[in-house]
Specification:
This protein has 51 residues and is mainly α. It contains 2 helices and no strands.
Amino acid sequence: MRRFKSIDQVQRFLDVHAAVYSLFNLGRHLVSAGCLSEPQEKYVLRMEQGG
């Protein structure tokens, strides 16, 4: 794995990573199980069909 050349690079990476994580992280305690399992089932079916 590549290392960061400076502390500034690490800080920039962590700033962006935190923003993206916060944007896409679902609050699982706020979402019902049915809402999570339905898209997962659709994904599995699509992968089984080859696509």
